[in-house]
Amino acid sequence: MEANNKSIAHLTLLSFCEEQYNSFIKKDFLFFCQDKKDYKNGYYNRFLETECGLLSLRIPRLRHTGYIPSFILPYKRQSLSFILEIIGLIREENFVFSRVKRLLQKIYGISLSDTHLRFLIKNYSEDVNTFFYKSLSKDYKYIMLDGTYIGKGNKCCLMSALGIDEDGNKEILTFRIAQTENLVSYREILTELVKRGLTDVKCIIADGFLGLDKIAKEVYKNALFGQCFLHYERAISRSENIFIEQEEKKAYINDLRRIVKSDLSFKESQTKLKAVLKKHSHLCELLNISYIKLEHLISFKIAPKKLWKTLYTTNPIELYHKHLKRNFKHKGHFKSRDNLLLFISSFCLKYCKT
User: Fold this and answer.
1) Which of the 8 DSSP states describes residue 354?
2) What is the pLDDT of residue 22?
3) Is residue 244 domain-shared with residue 306, that is, in the same domain?
4) Packing angle, helices 97-107 and 114-124, rounded to 10
5) Which residues lie below 8 Å from residue 348, measured CB to CB, with a gap of 6+?
6) Same domain, yes or no, for 213 and 235?
7) pLDDT tens, 275-305?
8) Is 339 buried (19+), middle (13-18) or exposed (0-12) by CB count in 10 A?
């Protein structure tokens, strides 16, 4: 009996759809025939939930004009942030789907089935645990750290860690969110990576955030610390000291650039740095520049040569932050911290796959 009712409903809807489609064409007959701006273009499949069950319908379509039967609502593309709001609503209502569906209908004017809600929970809610607790599949020898401010009015700081292996493969390993960029969060990031099995790290690269080199040395005692050359170059150029001429700064930066971008090995570059330090002793003394700080600029040279262009700056992780902020409208859209973590975790997993 139920099968008969389903087949009757299916045939009735198809015939109604064809009649409505034909009347739509006849209504604009001159438009179709004389101007030839549009014409029939086959069918497409749509599913419709009814009391008789799920029906599969073949809907006729036109090449340019959007014809949609009156009994079918058009597809509405939702952003990831909106989906996360729905998941947050599900959590607040203790996963009672009947309450969630009533609220969605009342607030947003949309109706979702229990199956759809379970799909959202299954595919998105596990992303946070998957991201933070998954074992690291590759042996990353190089870690890149960077922080960027996100949200409307830069309300919070996102600090991320990017792992790079000997073959140049990259992956976002973990992140922290805080009000400002701070050493405590960076210590948590590095400690977490050690607990997840990432112990044999050769070099940690960052943008020169004050005190980060000491934190890196405390957690990874055998790893070198590297500073982004472009950040160092900007810092020297912008430094204000009445006793240092601008030409002296340019000469100092040019000498460093020749060493950093040369094919010299790590040990050969160390010898060259000592010569630069001696040559520009006046500038280095006034700006409190030591040999240890200069050595941070060439730490990346312990890696294979094919990775030098990747490691001498923090551009790879800054590019990731740029893509994230492009997909991130404003923090105020998320009603809870959990939703914000879920959004960033989901983005990280997708970014790593691409």
Assistant:
1) -
2) 67
3) yes
4) 100
5) 131, 172, 175
6) no
7) 999 999 999 999 989 898 899 999 999 999 9
8) buried
